[in-house]
């Protein structure tokens, strides 16, 4: 049903959406920096898992946008502020935990439970109010009632965007994981680097 609706979208319009989405996916933002920090701290596998967790958060935001809940949240600034400060607090907690973790033991890299990393990625994205506003502003630009139910277009295009974004974010995390292995062999500052990145994300989230 959804894919039949997407098939009604002109190819040029669909390709323009995919190209625009990829440009946004590759632009470093909170999700990319989060996966990068996890990759540096835990290795390529941790970076990939963090990216997949971020993707789950994106699916949550897409569900809200499709159901119209995103517009409801966006209409109440106080709700966005609560989400924003909760997300900043969570990132600061991760920064504190990483800063106090001590030197990196190369044999322990990647030993964190996969679900814990996925959960952290999900919470990092879910507690960021910006995806709600972004999806509401970006996706409708590529819809047209003449092509079918708008909600199906929003959902289908959103799934494409979340899928490509998840792959790109996982890629950043994997590359950072290999870079972190090199850093870890030369100095015991991997956790401190990750802590600074988490804290920077928290400051950026509150400041914007």
Topology, pairings included?
Layout lengths: L1 H6 L3 H16 L3 H13 L1 H24 L1 H6 L2 H23 L14 H13 L3 H9 L11 H37 L3 H18 L1
Helix pairs in contact: 2-9, 3-4, 3-7, 3-9, 3-10, 4-7, 4-8, 4-9, 6-10
Run of helices and strands: HHHHHHHHHH
Helix content: over 70%
Number of helices: 10
**Strand residue content:** under 5%
SS elements, strand count: 0
Report low-confidence residues grouped into runs of 5 or more.
none
Mean pLDDT: 81
Structural class: mainly alpha
Rg to the nearest angstrom? 18 Å
Major sheet description: none
| Overall form | globular
Task: Measure the end-to-end span.
Answer: 38 Å
Structural overview:
The protein is an all-alpha fold and 208 residues long. Helices cover 79% and strands 0% of the residues.
